[in-house]
Amino acid sequence: MTWQVHRLAPALAEGAPDADTATWIRAMMAAFLGPRPGPEEMATIAASFAGQRLRGVYETADTSPVATLRSWDTAMTVPGGEVAADAISSIGVRATHRRRGLLRALLVDDLAEAVRAGTPVAALTSTQGSLYERFGFGLAAWTRSLTLDTRAARFRDAAPTGRLRMLDPSGFAPVAGPIQDRARRRHPGSMDRSAPSWHALITGGVYDSSPRSAVAWADATGRPAGYVVYGVAESWWGTGSATLAVHDLQATTPESYRELWRHLASLDLVGEVGWANASLDEPLPWLLTDHRAVSSGGPRDMLWLRVLDVPAALGARRYPVTDRIVLRVHDPDRHASGCWALDTTDQVTPAVTATTDTPDVEMDAAALGSLYLGGVDPRVLARAGRLSEHSPGAAGRLARLFAAPGVPWNGIRF
Ligand SMILES: CC(C)(COP(=O)(O)OP(=O)(O)OC[C@H]1O[C@@H](n2cnc3c(N)ncnc32)[C@H](O)[C@@H]1OP(=O)(O)O)[C@@H](O)C(=O)NCCC(=O)NCCS
């Protein structure tokens, strides 16, 4: 059977997805073992794809795709700034068509388009740990889970401050959007959220229809500085003590962070609050008189990053020290291949140029992706044989150059 990659723009006609979008959604949901969406869910999913790119692999005799991929343009925080990124998701292959190169065909096509568009990096999250390195993606950000035992939690700072306000779904995004936009600057790897993704966050989308609550915290001047979205993961009916799940928590000030957690810890009928997608540097245990009220799991891999344009990607971030270092990068797909001089003498505008100079360090594109946000120490990669030093101390120089002011994290599930 012959097949071809086709691109389509998701489309709604009178509130329902058009035929191509509908077959694409069904194929993607089936590949992820998801539920068969009804008309209302189909409309919600299709609306959440507005402005995004859908790709499918189609066999000549079939109008339903046998493989899917979705991508969109996003802004990603990098140390000292942000970079345009190709966010990739929904890669799924029909169970009968695996291991025939369909994932490869879709991804290669998508990355080629991102390169043509001048997008410096691509990013994705993965269901499995060994899939994407072969395509030049390096693990760049992690997440971990936190569980707060609310009955044991005592806050060092006893008196609540500010004001909490419940947000209804229609008023949620206008309040939460500006907060997330400020909060995400602290974590390299964080992305902006599209309007439909706000809707999915507050409603639970198609995978989770249990009710969600959104609470914003405002300081004494009335300015909202943080929000949390949570829902019931396990009711109190059986045990007398419910478990809540945090779906997102963004705080722009230490005070808003503390008061949002105080709110979660103070809810009646609740014994535990879990957050599956916390950053590695959550201050929560330090707010409490007994850090054992918080337990954690992980870390787990979260964000995989692929550099497509070395000068644009390295030029988009800032570096804490001045140096000039030459990196040789190997890339089987050639996007990042070459010998590159990174010169940070001008800290505002780092210069990244192709060079014939002898390299100080050598690595593959995936290793460069791992280093880019500053979450991995190049000396560790050197010890693992993933990076070669050609001048003494080069990995240490690279570590000082790439050090980031914040811990890489991507708070958005995509
Ligand atoms: C994972 C999945 C997308 C792979 O699709 P596929 O079409 O079988 O992959 P391809 O045939 O294009 O394989 C591409 C490469 O990845 C490798 N690969 C594929 N699936 C793999 C797996 N599960 N684990 C490790 N390697 C895998 C192949 O061996 C091949 O390697 P090579 O090119 O170096 O020889 C598919 O099995 C699937 O839909 N799984 C369920 C949904 C899912 O988990 N999607 C991934 C979302 S991040």
Q: What is the number of helices? A: 10
| Averaged pLDDT | 95
What's the main sheet like?
12 strands, mixed
- Say which CATH homologous superfamily of the largest domain is assigned: Gcn5-related N-acetyltransferase (GNAT)
Give the class-level CATH name of the largest domain: Alpha Beta
Residue share in helix: 25-40%
CATH architecture label name of the largest domain: 3-Layer(aba) Sandwich
> Mind telling me the C-alpha Rg?
23 Å
Strand content: 25-35%
Could you say how many structural domains there are in total?
3
Find the CATH topology of the largest domain.
Aminopeptidase
Structural class: alpha+beta
Distance between the termini: 32 Å
Which spans of ≥5 residues are poorly predicted at pLDDT below 50?
none
Bound molecules: coenzyme A
Number of strands: 19
> How are strands sequenced across the largest beta sheet?
1-4-5-6-7-14-8-13-12-11-10-9
Overall shape = globular
Describe the 3D structure:
The protein has helices at about 20-30, 40-50, 100-115, 170-185, 195-205, 255-265, 310-315, 365-370, 380-385, 395-400, and strands spanning about 5-10, 10-15, 15, 55-60, 65-80, 80-95, 120-125, 140-150, 165, 210-220, 225-235, 240-250, 270-280, 295-305, 325-330, 340-345, 350-355, 360-365, 385-390. With about 425 residues, it is α+β, with helices and mostly antiparallel strands. It has 3 domains: about 5-125, Gcn5-related N-acetyltransferase (GNAT) (Aminopeptidase); about 145-300, 3-Layer(aba) Sandwich (Aminopeptidase), CATH 3.40.630; about 310-365 and about 375-400, SCP2 sterol-binding domain (Nonspecific Lipid-transfer Protein, Chain A), CATH 3.30.1050.10. Strand 15 (about 325-330) and strand 16 (about 340-345) form a beta hairpin. It starts with a strand and ends in a 12-residue tail after the last helix. About 40% of the residues are buried. It binds coenzyme A (COA).
